[in-house]
Amino acid sequence: MQVDTGRIGQSDDKQQVILTAAMAAFAQYGFRRVSMDEIAKRAGMSRAALYLHFRNKEDIFATGVELYFEQVAGAMADVLHGAGDPVEALRGAFAAKVAPPYDMLMDSPHGEELIDLKTTAAAGVVAEGDAKLIAVISDWLARAQAAGRVTLEDYGTPEDAARTILNALHGVVMAARSYAVLRADLDRLARLIGRSLRS
């Protein structure tokens, strides 16, 4: 699925209204049951007006996923560069990865369908998003290593370690069955990894 990435980041209030309406509908009814008519109605516009912004609901979903990754990458970078201790840095970064509206997804009876859809209908967008997150974590590790706050002696390059950290985070996310458990497990993972990285 190709997404018009030129739209992301632009100040388009209508587009944000559409994305918010669509994600709420997907969480309530599941992706398959939601029509473009339903999204248009929730967004307060005609179906024709909706098609001026998006080709179909797959396009809406992929654009929402892309926007999510952009927001998460920015939030993670802010947290990682603002924290000195590796444990606190990772606790904040992991919390940013699953910040609201991720809770809405986890608490939805259709959350599993939407997570699966993320890896099929938006697979390319997810791969690009993961690459952004790896770059953010890698940059933090390189800076923290240079400052003497972490050691990567047993973990390879900053990029190798960042990829492993993100894969571990994904494993915890995929195994979680509730948002509260997810947050607790990610906090535990941050402490495990952060303590092992301390110089």
From TrEMBL:
User: Would the keyword Mitochondrion turn up in this protein's UniProt record?
Assistant: no
Q: Name one Pfam family in it.
A: TetR_N
Domain HTH tetR-type span(s) in chain numbering: 12-72
Keywords, alphabetical: DNA-binding, Transcription, Transcription regulation
* Record feature DNA-binding region, as residue ranges: 35-54
Species the sequence originates in: Maritimibacter alkaliphilus HTCC2654
Q: What is this protein called?
A: Transcriptional regulator, TetR family protein
GO MF, one annotated term: DNA-binding transcription factor activity
| InterPro entries assigned to the protein according to its UniProt record, in alphabetical order | Homeodomain-like_sf (IPR009057), HTH-type_TetR-like_transc_reg (IPR050109), HTH_TetR (IPR001647)
